[in-house]
Design a protein that fits this description.
There is one protein chain. The protein is an alpha+beta fold and 344 residues long. Helix content is 50%, strand content 9%. Strands 4-6-7-3-5 form a 5-stranded antiparallel sheet. It has a two-stranded antiparallel ribbon with strand order 1-2. The protein starts with 13 loop residues before the first helix and ends with a helix.
Length: 344
């Protein structure tokens, strides 16, 4: 069993609990007015020990940097040509090709069993964590308590955000119990995403798979499980094998802005989009469905059409810039592989 799962869940003797409650600097969320209902849920719905949950919450700390990061996501703050330079680079592509080479057997297996393009799997892991180099330094419990109980006061979407991150905190404690881990030690992103594939706690529980047969689904340190888990996530969200993702579109006149940059399941046909002024660079059946996108490039505006598989990438992160970065990094790696005739 992996070293990192040898830690046991924190005990909660009366002495420890008394010490925590006697120290205001530590008792951040155990006494927060929003947590009572959460604790009741963990006790009544999931049979957790009340004092143990309170102990974990007492150690959780509000992180102002998390609120700041959530308020200024790169997908919104940066124009496409700046955002693209973060992820679609020679360095990341070369690292991706090395990762592909090292894990080719696993990626081939995932393609056979899940039908997901290996280039997309490699690209996701590259965009999310730079192939495991940056899986996040925040304590996940800090991120999720901050976002569940305090971040909502800073945003107009407070109720939906509060509900989402409260569910993630619930799933974090369930995941820790299922994997016999200490929830205070788990690290991740400022949003609470974890591991090589940056799964939120509910996604970890729903989609992470034990892909190397050691009876433990580990996307924290195990690239084999990470590959299988990303592939499983995509196929469960409707990835269509051997189908296109996106295409450039040219315009002769100002196109309709109807549905522009809306990351939703495509419902408009290619024929309808062409009638609106979009001319796809590749040929598709007229009844193929897509949605239009525009990106502010360095020297003008780029227009693209996103097909069903582009939408599926967006289920990972519902931003068109994110999905386009994943797609373009995958294409950069694929072109280099084909040029070397290694796998084409």
């Amino acid at each position: 069993m992996k070293n990192f799962i040898r830690s046991t869940l924190i005990g909660c003797s009366a002495l420890v609990v008394a010490t925590l409650f006697a120290t205001p600097s530590l008792a951040d969320y155990s006494a927060h007015p929003e947590t009572e209902a959460f604790v009741d849920t963990m006790v009544n719905k999931h049979n957790f020990d009340r004092q143990r949950v309170l102990t974990w919450l007492a150690y959780a700390k509000h992180q102002k940097s998390i609120v700041k990061a959530m308020s200024r996501p790169a997908e919104k703050a940066k124009p496409w040509h700046e955002y693209r330079k973060i992820f679609v680079t020679d360095t990341r592509a070369n690292r991706g090709l090395e990762f592909w080479k090292q894990n080719k057997a696993t990626l081939d297996k995932a393609e056979r069993e899940f039908g997901v393009d290996p280039a997309i799997i490699v690209s996701i892991i590259g965009v999310e964590t730079n192939y495991g180099r940056n899986t996040g330094s925040y304590k996940v419990i800090d991120a999720l308590t901050t976002l569940a109980f305090d971040y909502y006061t800073y945003t107009e979407q407070r109720e939906s955000r509060k509900r989402f991150f409260t569910i993630q905190l619930e799933n974090l404690l369930l995941l820790a119990r299922e994997q016999n881990q200490d929830p205070l030690e788990l690290k991740g992103s400022y949003a609470g995403a974890m591991g090589w594939g940056q799964f939120m706690p509910n996604s970890y529980r729903d989609y992470a798979v034990d892909y190397d047969g050691d009876d433990f689904a580990d996307i924290w340190t195990n690239p084999t499980d990470a590959i299988g888990s990303v592939a499983n996530y995509f196929t469960k969200h409707g990835w269509q094998k051997d189908q296109p993702v996106a295409t450039r579109a040219y315009i002769e006149k100002a196109p309709s802005k109807e549905g522009l940059n809306k990351m939703k399941r495509p419902t408009t046909t290619i024929a309808e989009l062409m009638a609106q002024g979009y001319d796809p660079a590749e040929k598709f059946a007229p009844d193929s469905k897509a949605f239009p996108m525009s990106f502010r490039a360095k020297y003008g505006t780029e227009y693209w059409l996103g097909l069903h598989n582009f939408y599926v990438i967006g289920r990972y992160n519902p931003r068109t810039k994110y999905a386009m970065a994943v797609y373009q990094l995958s294409e950069l790696m694929r072109n280099r592989i084909c040029e070397s005739d290694q796998y084409c």
